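EI: anyone free to look at a 363-residue chain?
SC: sure, send it
EI:
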Amino acid sequence: MKNLAPNYIQAIAPYQGGKPISELAREMGLNEADIVKLASNENPLGISPKAEFAIQEALQDIARYPDGNSFILREAISQKFNVAQHQIVFGNGSNDILELAARAFLTPDCEAIYAQHAFAVYPLVTQATGATGVVVPAKDFGHDLDAMLQAVTPKTRIIFVANPNNPTGTLLAKEALLEFLKRVPNHVLVVLDEAYDEYLSETHKSEAIGWLQQFENLIISRTFSKAYGLAGLRIGFGLMHADVADMLNRVRQPFNVNSIAQAAAVASLADDDFVARSYALNQAGMAQLTQGFKKLGLEYIPSFANFVSFKVKDAAIVNQKLLQNGVIVRPIANYEMPDYLRVSVGLFAENARFLAVLESILK
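SC: here you go
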């Protein structure tokens, strides 16, 4: 029956998420309470207390379909980011926004451009439409914007840019990104993936939302899965020109964002203190991890997100030994980085446990 699917669907290698704690416990015969998961860039603080209360309240109406237009959340995001409500599209996580953009604008005779070492979902959503993916070699583990522009052809419809980038954590300068947008032809959409913007300092925070009026071909994707801690509820949103939003909404599934996620997201947007605590914890944890790598003599890629990729000899073997000791990190050989592992910033004790186990393995 597989042969009934198009060749480009048969050729897709499904996305592999971070190993769940329960799965490792079963595989290794470990106690779940003794396992540290630092693989999926989740918020170690959990969720905002305001969001937790909103979830409890929203459970009362769980038997009813959610608001398919996410009206209350739409109002909240419109006010928070100063964008018109018809410029907002909601997704089942920001991955959904990436897929909606691909489904709305890519066809088998089109091309999409993305960088080497960039988020694995870009080639997946491109291939799912039958379009051709064009991989541009990375520059210092990040995006080479000039080379990406040179790769544009009349067939190009989308350029995916992650800022900060996952899994390398690199950040493009705002000035360079703005100049890039000015040079992108009008027939090409730029999908700017800003999943980790809340982890940036005020100096580095994106200014792209203010560019929407200038660039009708710009889509900005954001998520509640990272700093807001709502990864399990799957909710993200895109900001874009109203005409582009109209196209994405035509291929968006009805009720693609559940009512619990909507309520939690509204409450999370109102809790700036929680986001500030998450940022501060991440800054401290990043320093803890990078200092640990320096002590161990390991190279790492300076990161602007809530994870850091480090180089280690025999990375696959080291990863397996970490798992055996109840520590889950992320191997990134599928990103053409076989000598690197990526570790998410956790709580102080979780980071310390990871570093101690890593040191014992290397010795």
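EI: The domain at 18-46+273-362 is CATH 3.90.1150.10 (Aspartate Aminotransferase, domain 1).
SC: 👍
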